[in-house]
Description:
By secondary structure, the protein is of the alpha+beta class. Helices cover 23% and strands 31% of the residues. The protein is built from 5 helices and 14 strands. The strands form 3 sheets. An 8-stranded mixed sheet has the order 8-9-10-11-12-7-13-14. Strands 1-4-6-5 form a 4-stranded antiparallel sheet. A two-stranded antiparallel sheet has the order 2-3. The longest helix is centred in the last third of the chain and has 15 residues, at 183-197. The termini are far apart.
Amino acid sequence: xxxxxxxxHLFLSTTHxxxxxxxxxxxxxxxxxxxxxxPALHGDFNRRGFRRSGDLIYxxxxxxxxxxxxxxxxxxxxxxxxxxxxxxxYNGDLVVSARPARFDAEHFTLFLRYQDxxxxxxxxxxxxxxxxxxxxxxxxxATTFHEFRHEGALAGVAVVDxxxxxxxxxxxxxxxxxxxxxxxxxAILWQIAxxxxxxxxxxxxxxxxxxxDKMAYKARFRPLEAYRNGRWSPLDGHLHPVVA
Length: 244
């Protein structure tokens, strides 16, 4: 007897304030949270431009706006800029280690400091431990917390999902006092190298929004591919010049 293949229902949220563009409203398409998502299905939706926040797999779906463009880095052809090479060298003294995706008091304390300085008044201001974990960890994802330490002190944490065809950069938080290190950039460079080491072809970065300062950093990683009109293709011709 042939098993019937189930597919999840999709739901559309009510309109809400846009997180990226001021004075804009947005709506979100998301998979039924009750559906048992397998790693393979998670990877399939990711390849179709969806992202994960906690258990929620979603994609912006805004009438009259297509500013949120899913992007990924093909790791084998990635070439760091001079500025990125300097960042890699500057952070060569960091020790990176993998930790399970579960609550850690040291991580949580750093997350609170990061939110307080870098995202004051944002949606994750003053979370409790349960809210923090619901934001970063999903029950259907293979997630690892990668610690970055300097002389034993925790400098940053990169939350990373492993997918069938790549790694997904879920979230990174770091010590705000170490701004000169460029730890946000370094975390992505490390993930590119890690994907290459594992033989995975892509690092997924989520959404790039051309006119959003929050998303500007993604344009600094070249080459960059975008998911538009049902396919992935190079986005470089639409990006700003690289700053060396």
